[in-house]
From TrEMBL, chain A:
Keywords carried by this UniProt record: Thiamine pyrophosphate
Cofactor: thiamine diphosphate
Annotated PANTHER family: TRANSKETOLASE N-TERMINAL SECTION-RELATED
Keyword set includes Ribosomal protein: no
Gene3D superfamilies: 3.40.50.970
Name of the protein described by the UniProt record: Transketolase
Domain of life (superkingdom): Bacteria
Transketolase N-terminal domain ranges (all copies): 100-273
Native source species: Thiohalocapsa halophila
Protein family membership: Belongs to the transketolase family.
TrEMBL record, chain B:
Gene3D superfamilies documented for this protein: 3.40.50.920, 3.40.50.970
Protein name stated in the entry: Transketolase
Species per Swiss-Prot/TrEMBL record: Thiohalocapsa halophila
Domain spans labelled Transketolase-like pyrimidine-binding: 3-167
Source organism, top-level taxon: Bacteria
Amino acid sequence: MSQAAATASPAASAADSPASEVRRVADAVRRRVLDYTLKNNGGYLSQACSSAETLATLYLRVLRLGPSTAPLVPRPFAGVPGPDNPDAFTGADYNGPRAPALDRFIFSPVHYALVLYSLLIELGRLGPNGLDAFNQDGSTVELIGAEHSPGHEVTAGSLGQALSQAGGIALARRLKGETGRVWVFMSDGEFQEGQTWEAFAALAHHRIGNLGVYIDANAQQCDGAMADTMTIEPLAERLRAVGAEVHEVDGHDSDALAAAAEGFGGGDRPLAVIARTDPCRGVELMRERAPKLHYLRFKSDAERQAYQQLLAALSVEAPA
Amino acid sequence: MIETVTRPHREHFVRWAAQRPEVLVLSADLTSSCEADGFRDTYPERFFSLGMAEQNMMGFAAGLAREGFFPYIHTFAVFVTRRPFDQVAMAIAYPNLPVRLVGFLPGLTTPGGVTHQAIDDVGLMRLIPNMTVLEAGDATEVTSVLDVAQAVDGPVYIRQLRGEVPRLFPAEAPMQLGRCRKLADGDDLCVVSSGICTEEALRATSALRAKGLGVRHLHVSTLKPFDDPAVLEAVAGVRLGVITMENHSVIGGLGAAVAELMAEHAVGRRLLRLGLKDTYAHGAGKAYLLREYGLDAAALVRAAETLAQTPLGIEDADLAAVRLGTLSAAEKTEDL
């Protein structure tokens, strides 16, 4: 039932350890995002490079989720929610059913959507052709995800708004006596928005200890390096000061990412895991574009060819 | 063929600001996306990155304006008008400070989905006392809107276009505050359009004229104040009725402004409002969304058929065949 439990066999050898499974999945996610970046002549590739291990670790080693109850082929857009539209849905059912003991996953930086879609495919929660409708008119598999997109539960594209909603969900679950936890994936840029800090203040004030946040701290944003745009550091100290339990880890080290969440859920403080990441990890080619890494748009045929060759090389290296 | 100008704001803004040292730019992590990167690179001492923190940015703009500067805030329209609404209203508009809020990606012009689509920005900004609301409809207006805004004693919201922008109006016919453009005259019905809808409307109006319908067409770029006598005269003087067309909700924007005007002046004509019918949209391409939400030339033809109470026999192919050029202004703008 629980993927975290299923992969936590003590008898596992190094080759099929949880960490190596995360590595395999993360590499596959990078390849698929690169593939679609090439197909679309652009995309949010650096986000895959930075967050692949964090998201894979969450799904494989942290989240207690049931199997997907959603179709392998994503549903088309069924209209916006409203009293006259009974057909509207969210993509949360890709994360399994709701149950008191199961966790919930709230995906905040929804321009990372392609990373999440690719991960869902690797995990079998989305079919292998689940991206055929990616960025197509009338599809839910949107470039920037919304709550109808696979794996998404809230509409979070106005950044820094999902954490507060997750706080409400966590508070509700505590009121209902549920033991399942609420996990939020965020980007570091969202810590520029005041609302994020308002949310942490409220989480601490109301002693919400069933909500954990994983932060992809890749130090990049649309305008370039965060340090040049609006610094958020010292992030760990600031989060500790507002009452969170803070772990600062190498965001490409699955064991460290998973260890930060061990035993979490019974206390009275929110958890913040700062995953320090490299926005070019696995795609060294991208470093020459620094500090503008937010959205990769090929500047020339030659550059596109270079990325195409990289994809071919990565695909050869991948285990069958 | 219609001329397309690539990123007209980017270069023009740099030239325009050269002799205006009091003009500053505040940006919220969308500098290149809002074509303010030229300004940033040319005048780094006048460019301030405030990060993704729009509420705070409005307060900084207000403080700078109180000290005599003219902050030009550049970000997406949704992040100017929704997120920091209270700060715009209280810190900027109440003291009538000359902050210029330049909002990009109006309405359905972004595939970014509901969070990036400004479908209520005109309504929100019209609601705020002291606020002037301008919307660019082509490359000529993208550039000339700056002079219009800068001359206003108070805050201004500019609904701005980026990227590939068509030139519908001659470069020597700049936007003027409170003056619509009369693009065609006729006595049967009056089309009032704004923003990108004017280009769509032009595809339909020529097809309608070819079917013998007398179509009067106004392009509006000042949405507040909405007191141009030429608009009242135009809507009052047609036989069948009025159609508004806007890349926005039918509530609060151009259609609402025309409805208020007609009601207040007892203009007893039917009014059809094309726009988002009190609904959110979703992420998809512009042409797809304009069709889905009834904002394309075909939707205008259907509305004209409703007013004329007769099918006009205009096919999609007829609309696609319409060739647009830069308008030599049917009537000179200074005549209006």
